[in-house]
Write a structure and sequence with these properties.
32% helix, 6-stranded parallel β-sheet, alpha/beta, single chain, Glycosyltransferase family 4 protein, 11 helices, Rossmann fold, Glyco_trans_4-like_N, Glycosyltransferase_grp1, glycosyltransferase activity
């Protein structure tokens, strides 16, 4: 099968630092190639992939040192170049939310769009009603809550490469918080839980531009405590040690989380997850096996005490069974086959060659 994967241009594929969508796209591309499919990745040129790379920008936007950048212009240019090459592919798989809808209406049936973000924004419903012919993929069933009317083709949980995070059989006595330093992720709750338990808490987090004021005014004052260590933003190579050494990952969210990639990263290390009952958490965490789903701080404290009794090897086994990149790829292949059963294949003569990356697309 000839598959185009269309990634956002904000982060490299996979990201150098924090980033969820682009990391998932990277693992999906490699798993599809391993399964014998012809995959072309439309992404920034700093991608690391086993797919054929169609470079759409010299580097990902966030780490580009240029003082002024237009993310809209970059994405519109990418979509136009893809549109000119659309007949080379049997399936075009978008990870760009709804940005591509006006440009690909005539081939909507030969596309899938995985939605990676929250769906409760005010204007989304009208747009998805307007472009209802595009089949959509949710990353959890909970993500559909705000748009049950949409053209859902299926749900495929995220998956990670088996070697992305190293299994750690023995923790080292601290709790972990990993994610964005934003109000919806509730780092304040993580700090409250750790202080109440008298346990060290290590916090690794990205501080985005939109979160700067929240961090400086509400979180930074809480960090002046001997139990709390803020280590900043960490890269992929640091995650295994950070998550693997934790007694548990605290995931004290306060928003409709679509998936929560950090939860399965922790599971890959064998680390239990203590997640608040929001969004996808009850679907991702096998309560009492890979962690606990709780409703409040008191419940989280009790879960941390119980987490030491969980079998870390069983947590890793559940990750391998439910959240591997191969399992994710097989889930998408089922949806691709369903699409193609309804749509004609792209012209065979125009198939791209693995020896000729799509660098010449105008």
């Amino acid at each position: 099968m000839r598959i185009a994967q269309v990634a956002p241009l904000y982060e490299s594929v996979p990201p150098k630092l924090y980033g969820g969508t682009e990391r998932v796209v990277a693992y999906l591309c490699d798993a599809l190639v391993d399964l014998g499919h012809e995959v072309t990745l439309f992404a920034a040129a700093d991608a690391d992939t086993r797919a054929v790379l169609a470079p759409m920008r010299d580097r990902a936007i966030r780490l580009d040192p240029a003082p002024w950048k237009s993310d809209l212009a970059a994405h519109m240019s990418m979509l136009d170049r893809l549109r000119q090459a659309q007949d080379r592919f049997d399936i075009i798989h978008f990870h760009t939310e709804l940005l591509h809808f006006p440009m690909f209406e005539e081939v909507a049936g030969r596309t899938l769009t995985t939605l990676h973000l929250r769906m409760d924004a005010k204007d989304l419903g009208g747009a998805y009603r307007r472009w209802a012919k595009f089949p959509l993929v949710s990353i959890s069933n909970a993500q559909r809550t705000y748009m049950p009317f949409a053209n859902w083709a299926g749900t495929v949980y995220h998956g990670l490469a088996p070697d992305c995070c190293r299994f750690s059989p023995e923790p080292r006595g601290y709790l972990a918080f990993l994610g964005r330093m934003s109000r919806e992720k509730r780092p304040d709750r993580a700090i409250e839980i750790a202080k109440a338990l008298g346990m060290p808490l290590k916090m690794a987090a990205k501080i985005g531009v939109d979160d700067e004021i929240y961090f400086r005014t509400e979180i930074e004052p809480l960090l002046d405590h001997p139990l709390i260590e803020f280590v900043g933003e960490i890269d992929e190579a640091q995650k295994s040690d950070f998550l693997g050494g934790a007694e548990a990952l605290l995931f004290p969210i306060d928003w409709p989380e679509p998936f929560g990639l950090v939860m399965i990263e922790a599971m890959a290390c064998g680390t239990p997850v203590i997640a608040f009952d929001c969004g996808s958490a009850p679907e991702v965490v096998d309560h009492g096996v890979t962690g606990f789903v709780v409703r409040d701080v008191r419940g989280a404290m009790e879960a941390v005490r119980a987490a030491r009794r969980l079998d870390r090897r069983e947590i890793r086994k559940r990750f391998d069974r439910r959240f591997s990149a191969a399992a994710m790829a097989r889930g998408y292949l089922d949806l691709y086959a369903e699409r193609l059963a309804r749509q004609p294949f792209a012209p065979e003569a125009s198939a791209p060659s693995a020896k000729a990356p799509l660098v010449r697309i105008a």
